[in-house]
Amino acid sequence: MTTAHWLGLITGVLFGVLLQKGRVLRFDKQVGAMLLTDMTILKFMMSAILVGMIGIQLLAHFGLIALSHKPMNVGAVVIGGALFGAGWAIMGYCPGTSLGAVGEGRWHAVFAIIGMILGAAIYAELFPLFKSTVIAWKDFGKIGLPDGIGVPTWIVVILFWAGALGLFAFFEKKKI
Length: 176
Known about the structure:
By secondary structure, this protein is mainly alpha-helical. 72% of the residues lie in helices and 0% in strands.
């Protein structure tokens, strides 16, 4: 294994520990997120996004990494998002939390993992069909949010941080 593999493994394990310590692997937290009565998962993920957003932008700014966006295909995003949301709502776990739940001994989450593997296999088999249909519906190319709205990246970062901090304050005030 290369250094990058080891760093990826260590980072993944640390993230898994944080998922467990943050109690976001618990089924009741997943259901609470779906019902908008418990914002633990949203606060956890938004915190990870905020930290990652700054880290990735700084790495890109100093030329340590090169950002490369996936194409923005409306059909793929809408259908993929709907399938992801349906799977999460049915199973009560997203991909990361299902693996963490199995790690905690919640064996019913194995069905979510099997569903992810089957879904990926079906997608791979049907990709030629999707490439000429769903993926071709509307392709905006390799753009990010700053490109799409025509503002500098750091403005988007600052606005996202302000919005997230406002949401955190709202959730705390409402005790959700």
